Amino acid sequence: MRILLLLALIVASAHAEKMKIVRPLTYSGMADASGAVALTTNLFAVADDEDSVLRIYRNDLEGPPVKALDCEAFLNPIGDHRETDLEAGARLGDRIFWIGSHGRSKTGKERLNRGCFFATDIKTANGEPTLVPIGAPYKMLLADLLADPRLARFRLAEASLRQPKEANAFNIEGLSATPQSQLLIGLRNPVPNGKALLIPLLNPEEIVQGSGTRARFGEAFQLDLGGLGIRDIALYQDKYVIIAGPYHQGGKFQLYRWNGDTSEPTPITVKHLDRYHPEAIVIYPDKGLNEFQILSDDGNEPVEGVPGKQVQDHSRKQFRSFWVTRDPIR
Fold first, then answer.
1. DSSP string of 233-276?
2. Among 113, 130, 263, 281, which residue has the least CB neighbours within 10 Å?
3. CA-to-CA distance for 123 and 85, rounded, in angstroms?
4. How far lies 169's CA from each of 69, 110, 229, in Å?
5. What is the pLDDT of residues 162-179, one digit of tens each?
6. Residue 220 DSSP symbol
7. Residue 316 CB neighbours (<10 A)
8. What is the dihedral of CA 194, 324, 295, 261, to 10 degrees?
9. Rounded CA gap, 34 and 185, in Å?
10. What is the CATH number of domain 19-325?
11. In terms of Cα–Cα distance, which of 207, 258, 249 is closest to 99?
12. For position 330, what pLDDT does the model report?
């Protein structure tokens, strides 16, 4: 068995694409970078899973955000635990969809505010893009997933009752557009039979209009990512880049390319990836898949001896970014 596993690893390594990390940058104003989308050739919007603020940064300059949108009033969280746990974003045209983890707290307590799905439109004034919430937040996505008979074999109802980083629990962390103007929801957890789950959301535009329309789903994809779940997924034309990572705390990360069909994802070998905590992919149309940006969730990285997520002064919080490229290091 060990010989067969070794051979499989050798074959996979031989077919792996090799890329490099270049231009590492450090941004301030937040620490838990969890999902991001390109706005222009040099601006990106990023969500923080510790608050409901969407921040806009330049991809070529370190430092604080150039603009921010606090979505808390729009999302209208209830109760004492107001964290919406935003985990991913995906752009369709000039509209960006954002999604919460839909998971429980780390102690297994119900957190209804994490079950949010909403959209912002990109508006440009004087050449500067801004984000404007549209429609209404949709808060029935988890119920719709649990009610779909085609997903019953994944036992998501049972998963949704567990702590999100427990085996076979429920935790959304990825969201991507598709060429059909639909979305793919990527699950960090569960990983049924060792394969990552991607669930097509067929009518994202309809459910954010506040009309009461319920979510509809397509047949789920199960991807062999070496037993890892999905931390993020992003589309360029008809191909995807995936960040794969463990469902629990710690562990190794791996990048993949995927053609979006029944073919197996292809691993991307990147030296020193383990120095980061990759959580978000930003693909720019002018660069495509030859060079793309990765954001690191650095909420547990120390800032003067304190984990970044615990720092009260937002100006002292920080997260890292880097580019993955085929080009020689510049």
1. EEEETTEEEEEEE-SSSS---EEEEE-SSSSPPEEEEETTGGGS
2. 263
3. 25
4. 31, 13, 12
5. 999 999 999 999 999 999
6. P
7. 14
8. -40
9. 14
10. 2.115.10
11. 207
12. 41
